[in-house]
Write a structure and sequence with these properties.
7-stranded mixed beta sheet; alpha/beta; 16% strand; 13 helices; 15 strands; Aspartate Aminotransferase, domain 2; Aminotrans_V_dom; 4-stranded antiparallel beta sheet; binds 4'-deoxy-4'-aminopyridoxal-5'-phosphate
């Protein structure tokens, strides 16, 4: 039953039909787009393209209304429990969203001696802006301590047991990630909240979870959630910051005075609709099962090391804690060479330093091959990949 559901969805990605010999295994970098998203863009451009927030003729009014509708669909997709109190700001992606929170919202509120907790082994996009905020404040004579949110190697999660010593009366903010972009681990955000208490804002980088697993802001209990449209089947240059409180960052001073990415946001609305109709919970089950198949296959190939392999064995795993991302290295081959071999066999994977903070992109020992999955991927693709990997000993 799951297979016929998946067959029907896979058939909706035109790019796959154009390249029957290729397996696209890099959805964590960017996702392919279903026809419904391409059609929505085309339809908008050939029937009513106009600027938003200005103009009084019907196309302009319809564009403004369409973008407001995307904002509401974003709230619904994220399970926003308090739409009257919260705000959704459109941004160009996760990187811009996190920067805006760090520099426009957080930095002006911090005082000398304040402390913030930020992850140090996550995506650089979730490290650089917090340090930039610290540096800007330091130039103005305000000293803010940036404390690394520690990892626990055995679970791949943040080390919640170490948190009590790190959290103090001057802790003002926590930045965290929902699903790790290299390890595929699902970070236990509930325990972060429990450690910092109800009053410290938590900002969640959800670049790898939106569109991959059902999101419920009501359950997550965070204050900001940021994601990129292009990783959720929409066009690049789109994304959103959800802020629990309307007093969010001033992303677009002057309201509609700047031109928004109208076409991109139309694609975002169509993508969220497509994901909802496809059933994100099923997409999650499908990709998690494929990732497990790959991890299991790699376990039988001793020349490979799976990064954060303990993740799927984590004792406290109440649910499957590894998502549709698996990264690994070969004992002898460099990850760049391994990537080259896989590409030559039609497997499009990521093979480099993976934008991981604290990792030297030029150091081959830090590189890895990453396989990241979406609903169009199949068990046959995983088995084919494993068959090629098995030939390299
Ligand atoms: N955070 C995470 C966890 C990511 O995986 C990525 C993209 N790889 C980003 C942030 C940055 O996203 P974008 O390039 O769309 O701004």
């Amino acid at each position: 039953e799951l297979r016929s559901w998946q067959d029907g969805l896979r058939a909706q990605f035109p790019i796959l039909a154009n390249h029957p010999g290729l397996a696209y295994l890099d959805s964590a970098a960017t996702t392919q787009k279903p026809r419904a998203v391409l059609d929505a863009v085309q339809e908008y451009l050939v029937t009513g393209n106009a600027n938003a927030g200005r103009g009084t003729y019907p196309w302009a009014n319809a564009t403004t209304a369409a973008l407001e509708a995307v904002r509401e669909r974003t709230r619904a997709f994220l399970g926003d429990p308090e739409p009257d109190r919260s705000s959704v700001h459109f941004v160009s992606g996760t990187t811009e969203g996190l920067r805006a929170i760090a520099l426009d919202w957080l930095a002006p509120q911090l005082a000398d001696g304040d402390e913030i907790l930020v992850p140090f082994e996550d995506h650089q996009a979730n490290l650089v802006p917090w340090h930039e905020a610290r540096e800007r404040l330091a130039r103005a004579g305000v000293r803010v301590a940036v404390r690394p949110l520690p990892y626990q190697a055995s679970s791949g999660d943040y080390d919640h047991r170490a948190l009590p010593q790190l959290v103090g009366p001057r802790t003002r903010f926590v930045a965290a990630t929902h699903v790790h972009h290299v390890l595929g681990g699902d970070m236990n955000v509930h325990r972060l909240r429990a450690a910092v208490g109800p009053d410290v804002p938590i900002c969640l980088d959800a670049a790898q979870s939106v569109g991959h697993l059902p999101i419920s802001l009501a359950e997550l209990d965070v204050d900001f959630l940021v994601f990129s449209g292009h990783k959720a089947l929409a066009l690049p240059g789109t994304g959103a910051v959800w802020a629990r409180d309307r007093r969010g960052p001033a992303f677009r001073p002057g309201g509609w005075s700047g031109t928004p990415n109208t076409v991109g946001l139309i694609s975002l609305g169509a993508a969220l609709d497509w994901l909802t109709a496809a059933d994100v919970g099923r997409i999650e089950r499908w990709t998690v099962a494929l990732a497990a198949r790959l991890t299991e296959g790699l376990r039988h190939l001793p020349q490979y090391e799976v990064l954060g392999c303990q993740l799927s064995l984590a004792a406290d795993a109440t649910a499957q804690r590894r998502r549709g991302i698996v990264s690994f290295r070969h004992r002898d081959l460099s990850s760049n060479d391994l990537g080259f071999v896989l590409h030559s066999h039609g497997f499009l994977v990521r093979a480099d330093g993976l934008c991981r903070a604290g990792v030297d992109p030029d150091d081959p020992r830090d590189a890895a091959v990453r396989v990241s999955l979406h609903v169009h991927n199949t068990p046959e693709e995983i088995d084919g990949l494993l068959a090629v990997l098995a030939t390299l000993d």
